[in-house]
């Protein structure tokens, strides 16, 4: 039974789990209401220890389901809630509830409702850093992702327990934005539905010894903007990321790597099952030939020179096996921008090169804007200085028809 509210649409099912971040679910609810969405709430018993049902009932204007029993006039509340939902949003998702979701356990009102849903599911985890990093939790996240569950990955920062690391609930606006995107309320084209896309981002660190490394400059912002925009347009995105201080984009599968060798292996492995690739990472061109297994001491082991060897050319390797699949590369240049980008297009065999003049203050590493040009066999298209999100959108505008042609 669908709700008659919200212009004939169903509602958002907000599933609130027992964690200190449960109070943030109230803010998520209000954000969705401001966007014109009706919200219904189901809670675990543990969640009620942090925020009472009265709060959610007052905000949502609907009864809150906390048990499979004792619901007047509705003997099967979990089925009713599941059937009427356009989206199930789990905030905050605890390690325990995600484990139950992965195993198909339905031992309370919340997990029974989630098991009965046929609508999209979006999960925003929050927990202690060690619980988040635990292999069991990561395996459950991977399992749910393979089943189509989307994630708004946790941020890094100071946690309620006092530790610092991943596990902090993503910002409310990020969760609400991801929910509206999943509902199709954000006016973003869904032209990448069903497309499997590989994106590489960030730098690589090539070890000199356990505490020193060489690297190219990169904040990862461009690659992350592309992954975010692609996921919003419906793509199944695998983001192979070097070391960055950015939160994982909502609904994106992130493979974290450190070295160029690791990035090469992860990218090649992911590309087997992808329809296209965008190589935005600033991969180090060289790596120390013989990294030390201990910290080198200046007093006894002076580092007067470093013997280097070339790293694998990831873009060239992907292009060599791409077939008809489009592969987009980047060229960060300080001089002769277009000439160098055209040379790279030919030598690598890429579908398109995004040329970026990093000598400019508004287009350099770490900036929030870029002034780029698209270089392809069709010619050169230059753009004014734009926010990275807009650059990402325009890259995808060019990539989308390439993918459709390749899939015919």
Describe this entry's structure for a reader:
This protein is an alpha/beta fold and 408 residues long. It folds into 2 domains: 11-183, Flavin prenyltransferase-like (Rossmann fold), CATH 3.40.50.1950; 196-407, CoaB-like (Rossmann fold, 3-Layer(aba) Sandwich). It is built from 13 helices and 21 strands. It has helices at 22-34, 53-60, 77-84, 95-103, 109-116, 129-133, 135-146, 172-183, 221-232, 260-271, 314-320, 337-348, 388-407, and strands spanning 11-16, 39-43, 85-93, 121-125, 150-151, 155-158, 164-168, 196-201, 205-209, 212-215, 236-241, 253-256, 276-279, 286-288, 308-310, 327-333, 352-357, 369-370, 372-376, 379-382, 386-387. The strands form 6 sheets. Strands 12-11-8-13-16-17-19-20 form an 8-stranded mixed beta sheet, sandwiched between helices. A 5-stranded parallel beta sheet has the order 2-1-3-4-5, sandwiched between helices. Strand 19 (372-376) and strand 20 form a beta hairpin. Helix 1 (22-34) packs parallel to helix 2, helix 3 (77-84) packs across helix 5 and helix 9 (221-232) packs across helix 13. The longest helix is centred in the last third of the chain and has 20 residues, at 388-407. The relative contact order is 0.09. Residues 1-8 have low confidence and may be disordered. This is Coenzyme A biosynthesis bifunctional protein CoaBC. Keywords: Decarboxylase, Flavoprotein, FMN, Ligase, Lyase, Magnesium, Metal-binding, Multifunctional enzyme. CTP binds at residues 285, 295, 330, 344, 348. One of its GO terms (molecular function) is phosphopantothenate--cysteine ligase activity. Its cofactor is Mg(2+); FMN.
